Amino acid sequence: MYKKKSVVKLGRPTKERKLMVKSLLKDLITHGYIRTTKMRAWVVAKEFDAIMNDVVNNNLRAAYLKLNDEKMLEKLKQMNINDKKTGFTRIIKIGNRVGDGAELVLLEIIK
Questions:
Q1: pTM to 2 decimals?
Q2: What is the pLDDT of residue 81?
């Protein structure tokens, strides 16, 4: 029986992929939005929702272990959340990249 894989590899080795996702997460928290490819945005949005669930449930230790940055955690705690459980981000299609035709999206935090 076919079982769907839960890890999207993004064409990179594990360490490189984890660092890339963490870097995109920090950019998303710092600026409020990022412009990236569709699959990267999907992975980052999934990770961001998990971190925000930890912040909402006051499980700050788990959120800190995922981010490893005290400033980012403080910024997340100050966000106006309104007791949501999911749906902290929005993905908006903005077209294709000129060089390789990859689908570009705008990933932004919903406030």
A1: 0.89
A2: 73
